[in-house]
Amino acid sequence: MSLIDYHIHERHSRDAATAKIPEYIVAAEARGVSEIAFTTHMITVGPDVDISICEEEISEYIGEIRAAQEGTRVRLLAGLEVDYFPGEERHLETILGGNDFDFILGSTHYINGVDIGSQTQAGGFFANRPIREAADEYYRVWKRAIETGLFDVMAHPDYWRKYLHHYGRTAAWGDFGQVVFDALDAAAEHGVGIEVNTAGERSGTGHYYPLQEFLVAAHEAGVKAVTVGSDSHTAGTLGYHLEDAARQLKAAGFTHMSTFRGRRNTRVGIDEILKRAHSH
Ligand SMILES: [Zn+2]
Ligand SMILES: [Zn+2]
User: Fold this and answer.
1) Helices 242-251 and 270-279 sit at what angle, rounded to 10 degrees?
2) What distance in angstroms lies between residue 189's CA and the mean position of ligand 1's atoms?
3) In sequence order, what are the beta bridge partners of 107?
């Protein structure tokens, strides 16, 4: 086990339309990434459904990943990054239950109708209120997503910070409000994990998602499963800063990361991962 990258978009995500599975495998072999999870977007509601994989394409998508596995020693996982929308639970349950997935990331890119991953819309989410209020609104939806039991791990847990700096504001851990602690308790209780996502640094927030204090709070709350992901939309960023992300988890008190197969979780020592990554 060397580095593992559990957040990768390929061409079925229309915002990664040119990214091909074989290119990721070549990059993984070159960079000592021994295991990768493809997590294409599944968005069932709203204006961004057109960047999502279509339901009719899922078996082809999984089939491509299984076929590619024949030609490489890099372990390939079939997964999704699923957007949670209240009211979609039954629909998502049908999609997830009806297919042979290894790993499901849950995401909250849209909060009460606002696309916080859109630079123009995100401003309205923060306008005329303390950051704490926006954070509390975010974590109420995030907690609800956790409580559905649909997801293995929650992606980029403080994604709401993405465009904050474009509006001349910053969020320190003290601005995260109270709801985040309830949400982390819910994650521990429901056995849902969290992800360290290195795209936060690439998008200019000055940090990965989430802040280090968030990881410490998650560990203290009893969250057990943690994964790391580059959130690559092109093979160029596969494995991006994942060693450092693993070190951040360790600094927060985590001793193990999780790998998944058929949605079942196995723990791997972070020290072991780092040692093998170095010997590569
Ligand atoms: Zn995402
Ligand atoms: Zn993603």
Assistant:
1) 150
2) 23
3) 83
pTM, two decimals, is: 0.97
What integer pLDDT is reported at residue 133 of this predicted model? 97
User: Domains plus CATH for the chain?
Assistant: 3-279 (3.20.20.140)
pLDDT given for residue 138 in this prediction: 98
Ligand at minimal distance from the CA of 107 is 1
Asked whether the beta carbons of 11 and 19 are under 8 A apart, the reply is yes
Residues whose Cβ atom is located within 5 A of ion ligand 2: 81, 231
| 3 CB-near residues (< 8 Å, 6+ apart) | 31, 32, 33, 34, 239, 242, 243, 246, 273, 277
Percent of the chain that is helix, strand, coil (3-state, to 5): 45, 20, 35
State the ligand closest to the CA atom of 15: 2
pLDDT in tens, 115-138: 999 999 999 999 999 999 999 999
Which residues neighbour 278 within 8 Å (Cβ) at sequence distance 6 or greater? none
User: What's the 7 CA to ligand 2 centre distance in angstroms?
Assistant: 6
Ligand minimally distant from the alpha carbon of residue 80: 2
Predicted local distance difference test score (pLDDT) of residue 280: 61
Would you call 227 exposed, middle or buried from its count of C-beta atoms within 10 A (0-12, 13-18, 19+)? buried
Distance 237 CA to ligand 2 centre (A): 12
Segment 135-192, tens digit of pLDDT: 999 999 999 999 999 999 999 999 999 999 998 888 999 999 999 999 999 999 999 9
Q: Which residue positions in the chain have pLDDT lower than 50?
A: none
Ligand 1 mean position, distance from CA 254 (Å)? 23
